[in-house]
Amino acid sequence: MHFKKIDEFENLEMGYICNFSGGYVSRNKQLFENIELNKLNQFILEKSVFGTPIFKCGDGSNKILVLSGIHGNELPSQIANLRLMNELVSKELSHTVYFIPFAAPKASMNNERTFNSMDLNRSAHIKNSVSNLIVKAVASLKIDFVGDFHSTSSNANPGFESIFSSKSPSPESFLIANYISNDMGSETISFDFAGMSYKGAVEDVCNLRGTPAITGEVLCPFCNVARGSVDKSFAQMKSFLSYFGISY
Hints:
This protein is an alpha/beta fold. The chain has eight helices and nine strands. The chain has a nine-stranded mixed beta sheet with strand order 1-2-3-5-4-6-9-7-8, sandwiched between helices.
């Protein structure tokens, strides 16, 4: 994967996961109204028209991915991911942090759970799906840890703020989830073996391939941005990074 240094922003590089998933994210009114229209966010929105962009900050030891938008109608984590990028883009980092704020910009644009009728959190094992290409990028970039951030409605599964993990075959998934739970009170949901409940989640496929991963969930109605939900998702992301000593 080719990364290009972005001259307008200190310490930022970008590439593309794929070029068939792009969309005008700004057309999602609920999402757009909660995004600060600064130079960096405008740049990210522009690049998302052409596919799924991935951004890189720092050049340190561990390589860590912060992912959001696997379900396009789960908005708080996508907004929080942009906020996190804005806070870290000019920092000197001891690790390398990758960001995918919009896994499928077209789905985010349409405020839809699926991308072209495919649930990307049930298809990471399906060749050349968007989520499968993200998992392939994790492997090709030698990313060490993945945090996939979502939201859940009170009448959905799980229906409460939580951190998903598994104990095997990547046991550090469980350790990271416990750290975040102890740090901010998100309930831990852990499986003995990745993929026990269903197939194709990004977290599970990463864990099965030997890359420790967790899924963060905050409570918010789908297609909306509930008060405090972005702050909660942002706090989960910061807690995830603090496990590796990234704090500010």
